[in-house]
Amino acid sequence: MDTPSEKPTTSSHLFCESVFLIAALVATALSISMVVSLIFTDFIHGNPNRTKENAEMMMATYPLICFIFAPIGIFIVFSATQIIQGLTMSALHSRFGRYTYIVVGLLVPFVSILAWYCYDYLTPSNLNLAINEGADWVPYQHGINLKRYLAILSAQGGITIFTLIYFEAAVYHQSRRTVILGFLFLAIAVGVFLGHRHAIGQYQFIS
Questions:
Q1: What is the C-alpha to C-alpha distance for residues 153 and 58, in angstroms, rounded to an integer?
Q2: In this structure, are residues 19 and 82 in contact, taking their beta carbons and an 8 Å threshold?
Q3: pLDDT in tens, 145-168
């Protein structure tokens, strides 16, 4: 059984601290995604529907918007689940060491439901007044289904994995900087991939 090198009360602090880092990583990925999409769509492929000056302005302002609103969304949706997992880690880690990671992992399917309802009711998701279901458009309806659950489960799972890796590095005196840099490179790669995919989807409208 592992013995933690810091007080168990540090666990909750680290789980909350990781939310700020996750928010920064998400904002980075979204910013790069938009910039890459604009580069391919407007500067490489040549978008006749938008001036290059307008594209440059979007490239300058969109990252700022992301770093303002993405963290707010992350805090609203995932703060409650991080608190629950952090309190669990704080209560059990001093006795069970790394085995507590299993308990935290087992919580993910359950706290993901809480994360979904935080998203569904605390963010302006209902501004999507209609969703496409086959040939018919119907008003947005609150609630969870299998598709929504799997989406939020994937997001919560990724956040939990990052948090546990960050916790491991912090408590057992490993390099937190290495963890952050590793996930930063991952966020950049995801942003490039999403931006390129979005640009490909836009080509049909500008050809």
A1: 32
A2: yes
A3: 999 999 999 999 999 999 999 999
pLDDT tens figures, 79-114: 999 999 999 998 998 899 899 999 999 999 999 999
- pTM comes to 0.81
Q: 128 vs 20, 116, 132, 141, 176, CA distance in Å? A: 27, 16, 11, 10, 39
d(Cα 152, Cα 77) in Å, to the nearest integer?
10
Are the C-beta atoms of residues 183 and 28 closer than 8 Å to each other? no
Measuring CA to CA, how many Å separate 138 from each of 117, 129, 141, 148?
Answer: 20, 8, 8, 17
List, in order, residues 6 or more apart from 114 with CB less than 8 Å away. Answer: 80, 81, 84
- Rounded Cα–Cα distance for residues 198 and 166 (Å): 31
Q: How far apart are CA 93 and CA 85, in angstroms?
A: 11
